[in-house]
């Protein structure tokens, strides 16, 4: 049985704690590894290593930092399939989807390779007589990322490339459900020439999270996960004086207008709802059919959903893999049950799916629930599984009001051929990321990722310009170089420009 260790100060280490957790293969239902679970001392060791590394890394020139980032980028690109296969074996998503995840993370690395331009300050010559003012940004110190199971490569790469490029030292606490991708990326950093201690990986559960939140030498925390945990991370981290960005849950809606191409909309809805078994924070889980759009839409979506090939992620013919854990599978099935009890119509029922040769795997098929209302549990809760709920509204204004009444505000989309409807939608919804005929509007790396309302705690989104801002702080310098023969011209009144 494979043992997965921490990565501290440039190499793997078993750590002090003897606690460990099982790592499962969701396609087979079998254990494939043990992963170490950190205690307070393990976190202390990682922070100490990172603190020592920060002292010299923060003073390393932008040119040297950039060279290492470019080297990491090349290694990541060359090993993308290896990382994707590790994700597939531990998360369950199909390999092609996992390769796409690595690619989107790679784009953030490429963005961070431009750090010399991104960290350029400003300068004002002769702001006052013989006085110049200039500003620049400095790294924070030791920063940490706490990341979820659903994107074990991409979400960490929303964080650490920008943080490290800015001159910080980074500690990653990945999900203990699929920890291998983090270890592979740590190895790539070492091969790229990153100094020991600048990037560390500490596996663990709540004990490791709390140790990071409470440690006085951790300056900032980035988090992606459920809303209750995001709120907890934000409150405990800020109470300890840290800078915190905590991205929470989602209930992403797609509005389908009667003038939309129903076939186009249905095809993209199915991909957005059932890709990665719906275990995406940007997955569409609620389709809102406006006016006459409903009947045709549900018919096309149901046929496409029923035709999805579900199987193990390593099978090239599989379009959707298993759910990450057996407990998650039970929770998803329970929500489908509740939807049926509360009056929704099961257009496609994915419960009870058995994949031949993988009878112990955690499989549930694509499920479409029609005639869902906002009062049903299947709508109110974040399902995080392959379940699409279809609701009905008479007008676009009613649909916008439905989106705005939801506590989450991560992503949303509209399918329409009307520019007026699209503009009314994009200006009217209170959501952070909006798609127009694009169901999963994840911004490119040079924009920032983040939601509104209960989907974000903190004031900074991830990667892009706001990521650079989050991982640095500003200094403003006011300078005068007087001539030796001049007097000081000092005054006791408050200084003003002249």
Task: Describe what you observe in this structure.
About 40% of the residues lie in helices and about 25% in strands. The protein is globular, with a radius of gyration of 25 Å. The chain starts with a strand and ends in an 18-residue tail after the last strand. With about 500 residues, it is α/β, with parallel strands linked by helices. Strand 9, helix 7 and strand 10 form a beta-alpha-beta unit. The strands form 6 sheets. It has a 7-stranded mixed beta sheet, with helices on both faces. Helix 1 packs across helix 8, helix 2 runs antiparallel to helix 4 and helix 10 crosses helix 11. It has 2 domains: about 270 residues, Aldehyde Dehydrogenase, Chain A, domain 1 (3-Layer(aba) Sandwich); about 180 residues, 3-Layer(aba) Sandwich (Aldehyde Dehydrogenase, Chain A, domain 2), CATH 3.40.309.10.
What's the quick description here?
The chain is an alpha/beta fold and 498 residues long. 38% of the residues lie in helices and 23% in strands. A seven-stranded mixed sheet has the order 15-16-17-14-13-19-20, with helices on both faces.
Name the features:
seven-stranded mixed β-sheet, six-stranded mixed β-sheet, Aldehyde Dehydrogenase, Chain A, domain 2, 2 domains, 498 residues, 16 helices, Aldehyde Dehydrogenase, Chain A, domain 1, alpha/beta, 23% strand
List the helices and strands and how they pair.
Elements lengths: L1 E3 L1 E3 L2 E3 L6 E6 L4 E7 L3 H18 L4 H17 L1 H12 L3 H18 L2 H4 L3 E7 L2 E9 L2 E5 L7 H12 L3 E5 L6 H13 L6 E3 L4 H9 L3 E7 L2 H13 L3 E5 L4 E5 L5 H13 L9 E7 L3 H13 L19 H16 L3 E4 L18 E4 L6 H4 L6 E7 L2 H10 L2 E2 L1 E5 L3 H10 L4 E4 L15 E2 L2 E2 L6 H7 L1 E9 L18
Parallel strand pairs: 1-5, 8-9, 8-11, 9-10, 11-12, 13-14, 13-19, 14-17, 16-17, 19-20
Antiparallel strand pairs: 2-3, 4-5, 6-7, 7-23, 12-22, 15-16, 18-21
Helix pairs in contact: 1-8, 2-4, 2-7, 3-4, 3-7, 4-6, 10-11
